[in-house]
Design brief:
EC number: 1.1.1.53
CATH topology: Rossmann fold
Order of helices and strands: EHEHEHEHEHEHHE
Number of helices: 7
Number of domains: 1
Number of strands: 7
Low-confidence stretches: none
InterPro entries: KR_dom, NAD(P)-bd_dom_sf, SDR_fam
CATH class: Alpha Beta
Distance between the termini: 39 Å
Radius of gyration: 17 Å
CATH architecture: 3-Layer(aba) Sandwich
Mean pLDDT: 95
Keywords: NAD, Oxidoreductase
Protein name: 3alpha(Or 20beta)-hydroxysteroid dehydrogenase
Organism: Gracilibacillus halotolerans
Shape: globular
CATH superfamily: NAD(P)-binding Rossmann-like Domain
């Protein structure tokens, strides 16, 4: 038996990186998964790779109507939703002096407002199951300082998680946040790669994490193994915040 047998999940930002790793593990553990992303080609390819228990849905996480469409598609395809992983997010390597208001608001919309929209949209479906789990992917920058915009929104995700956990507990819906450190995903590649490699030397674990290492924690929170955990932060950072 898999840990997620019979469960239906939506994973945002699921087409690549951590989201794709979560989707692969969820499928292995028996879930039916909707991969929700704006990256249509990558998302459809991943869904085809994962087989009949996976489906792709185009989703702009900042659009409430689009969320409603994805919820409807998920229910029509697989049934009521047990699990939502709010994984989509962006960052920007600019200082507070360099960042424009438009850029800042875009980060807030994608990293913060989308989490509110996703949680709100999925509640009616989860109420049908009496056994819902929402996993919000924050960051260690939801615990300590970092890039402007990114840090702000990741702290907000941490707070929203606690508020939503209190709001939704009487429906049997649990809400927790995951706080990864530096993970080997497309987000850290490119111009910042050399800086990341240098930073990794100072992580107590002496390396950055692979996405699958985060997925194992997300699986725990999505499954009934974590049935008494709600409103909590789960840190997976190789010891960065212990220093």
């Amino acid at each position: 038996m898999g840990k997620l047998d019979g469960k239906v999940a939506i994973i945002t930002g699921g087409a690549r990186g951590m989201g794709a790793a979560h989707a692969r593990l969820f499928i292995q553990e028996g879930a039916k998964v909707v991969i929700a992303d704006i990256l249509q080609d990558e998302g459809q390819a991943l869904a085809e790779e994962l087989g009949d228990n996976a489906a792709f849905a185009g989703l702009d996480v900042t659009d409430a109507e689009n969320w409603s469409t994805v919820i409807e598609l998920t229910e029509n395809t697989f049934g009521p939703i047990n699990i939502l992983v709010n994984n989509a997010g962006i960052t920007m390597a600019k200082s507070i002096e360099e960042m424009t208001e438009e850029e800042y608001r875009r980060i807030v919309d994608i990293n913060q407002v989308s989490v509110f929209l996703g949680m709100k949209a999925v509640v009616p479906s989860m109420k049908k199951t009496d056994n819902g789990s929402i996993v919000n992917i924050s960051s260690i920058n939801g615990l300590v300082g970092g890039a402007i915009g990114y840090t702000d929104t990741k702290f907000a995700v941490r707070g929203m998680t606690k508020a939503a956990a209190l709001n939704l507990s009487h429906y049997g819906i649990r809400v927790n946040s995951v706080h990864p450190g530096v993970i080997d995903t497309p987000m850290i590649h490119g111009d910042a790669k050399a800086q990341i490699e240098e930073f990794a030397k100072h992580i107590p674990a002496r390396r950055i994490a692979q996405p699958e290492e985060i997925s194992n924690l997300v699986l725990y929170l999505a499954s009934d193994d974590s049935s008494y955990s709600t409103g909590s932060e789960f840190v997976v950072d190789g010891g960065i915040t212990a220093q």
